[in-house]
Amino acid sequence: MDDVILGAYVFTGERSAHSYHLNKMANSLRSAETRAQFQADEAGYMRAMGCSDHEIALVHRRDWKAMMEYGASIYLLLKIGAATGHPLPEIGAATGGMTVAEYQAKKAH
Amino acid sequence: MATIVGGIGTSHAPTIGVAWDRGQQQEPSWAPLFNGYIPARQWLDDIKPDLFLIVYNDHVNQFFFDTYPTFALGVGAVHAQADEGWGKRPLPDLPGDPDFAWHLARSLVSDEFDPTICQEMTLDHGVLSFLPLLTDTAWKVPVVPLAVNVIQHPIPTARRLYRLGAALRHAIETYPGDKRIVVFGTGGLTHQLHGESFGRHNEAWDNEFMDRLETDPVGLSELSIQEYMERGGTEGVEMIMWLAMRGALGGTVRRVHRNYTAPFTTGYGLLVLET
User: Closest to A107 (Cβ–Cβ): which among B64, B192, B263?
Assistant: First the structure.
């Protein structure tokens, strides 16, 4: 099976392992309390969760495309997006090299 | 013995739940989707099922990649709602059916399917996005959820899901109590969320898939995971879960209702079948 299919990343075990700590940090944002802690001190929160300086920088820049290339799962990026005010169309458009308006012109929802 | 009174294939997308909670059902962009559920809901009202057996996938809300099961069965009396990151929706927790679920666990393992058994299983939009469109949100019909890994590869084959359906049927037919059960296969249809081709969907393949689910499920079960992803996107591979529903129905089916709406982030399908 291919690792990239028609410009799409297959979320393989290897990709999952590579981005494990970033995904794990994102997965922890499933309560109001942890989201508040993250929002108060993103870098400190991420460091305590085992994230590297590189991972912290990717989130700090809100660089969804780079996070996706790094191996993050979209389902975990959605949780970072929920905690920082960036919904799916914004994350997806960035990873697809589009503006949100360009993406929304293609879709009803 | 219990009986399968029908099967439902339905997409699941979190935006459906958001739109439902906001009361946007009759807005022009949403109405074709929501109105498509009305005949399915009427059918459910008419056949009066006792149980929903729902094959779905968790979106990293119950399970994380520290321990990610290929199959997982919810056997609890109650299934709580997951906070997916946006806070919980205004819905009560879902009732389960431990007696049937433990029977299903025994029967599946006997048939060489080995799900992780979950006495606590929080449910996300994989179940809760479409369910309010089909049934009273007082949740009068219990739910037994069966989660499938379709997000972290390696994932099971389409053939495995089709055979899982046959094992579900065997379990239902050997349950000693009387129950009228509707089997759900959820997810899809085509969509692409990871990478540069974000947003790609394939209406022709969505419709071919729904056609062949009625008439040629064996052919669909012989396609590889790579072929599903080439045709329908890396997330479109969720479509294989519909094959579990179809495998449970077996033989020839009669279509009760079908609806398809696009272009959404996913091709959005609904199919109601009777045996």
Answer: B263
Show the domain range for B123.
3-274
Residue B236, helix vs strand vs coil? helix
The whole-angstrom separation of Cα A3 and Cα A30 is: 29
**φ/ψ (deg, to 5) at B22:** -85, -5
Minimum mean pLDDT range among A1-15, A41-55, B124-138, B202-216? A1-15
Question: Which residues in chain A are closer than 8 Å to B29, comparing Cβ atoms?
Answer: 108-109
Distance from CA of B194 to the nearest CA of A (A): 5
Query: Could you give all domains of chain A from N- to C-terminal order, each with its CATH number?
Result: 10-106 (1.10.700.10)
User: With an 8 Å Cβ cutoff, is B230 touching chain A?
Assistant: yes
> Between chains, do A83 and B230 touch, taking CB under 8 Å as contact?
no
- Helix ranges, chain B (H): 14-21, 31-36, 38-47, 98-110, 125-128, 131-134, 158-173, 203-215, 217-221, 225-232, 240-249
Its pTM stands at: 0.97
CATH of the domain at B231: 3.40.830.10
Could you give the number of structural domains in chain B?
1
Q: How confident is the model at residue A105 (pLDDT cuts 50, 70, 90)?
A: confident
Residues B216-245, mean pLDDT to the nearest whole number: 97
